[in-house]
Specification:
Layout (H helix, E strand, L loop, with lengths): L1 H30 L1 E2 L6 H4 L4 E6 L5 E7 L9 E5 L3 E2 L5 H9 L3 E5 L13 H17 L8 E6 L1 H12 L4 E5 L5 H8 L5 H4 L6 H4 L7 E6 L7 H10 L4 E6 L8 H4 L1 H20 L1
Parallel strand pairs: 1-5, 4-6, 4-7, 7-8, 8-9, 9-10
Antiparallel strand pairs: 2-3, 3-6
Helix pairs in contact: 4-5
Amino acid sequence: MLDAWMLGLALAAVAGALVLGLLWLVQRRLIYVPAGAVLPAVTVLAGSHEVVFDTDDGLRLRGWYLPAAGNGSGMTVLVFNGNAGNRSIRAPLAAALSRAGLSVLLFDYRGYGGNPGGPSERGLIADARAARAYLVSRGDVDPARLVYLGESLGAAVAVALATELPPAALILRSPFTSLVEVGRLHYPFLPVALLLRDRYLAIDQIRHIASPLLVVAGEQDGIVPPAQSRRLYETAAGSKRFVLIPGADHNDPELLMGDRFMKEVVQFLRETEKRRGRR
């Protein structure tokens, strides 16, 4: 009887190890959900044009650059997408930012939007670095007036880049404290801290960023709880503002380019420009 019990325990241990091994191998397929090739810019985002730039590790990435409508404010927004889709989904956001007088770069990470390579934390941060380098190489972009706007996973990418290359302002939509904490929330039965290869420790990095900060969260966010967004905000140094959008869930349009969201972004950037002008 004891031998049978020991055998069952051993088989259960082997099965558990196999499951954890499989999760280790496929975890990036669960974290990153890219959509493939996109339509030409002119058919999706009027007034934009296709751009290409290279990463330090030799990948060629694609994006869309949309100038500010009218005279513009002189500020440029670099958008860091979340973990799913591609830049097409963010076209309404880019159009709204352009109407508000802001130039915009939408781009896709490696493995997204028909780009080569496979996504990882190190890879996405390298892609962010390359996108910024492309923007500052343009004659019509003022590097001192560059804004980072990251959504969800892209917020963690924006925070990581801001620790290296601080922006004029940092806008984070539905940011989490770390991917480890998000994993523990959704998979409490797994040893997430041991399994995760990509960790995105934004909570450790945000305290080192002095750029003006706007954090926007959805009250009903079921993927990144607003409490995590607020804790990240409270950890940040420097001038900052926290906005909670009533009733909004993680992927609701109100958090992509809704009226309240856009109003808060525009007001925040105007106040940032005013403070910059007084220095």
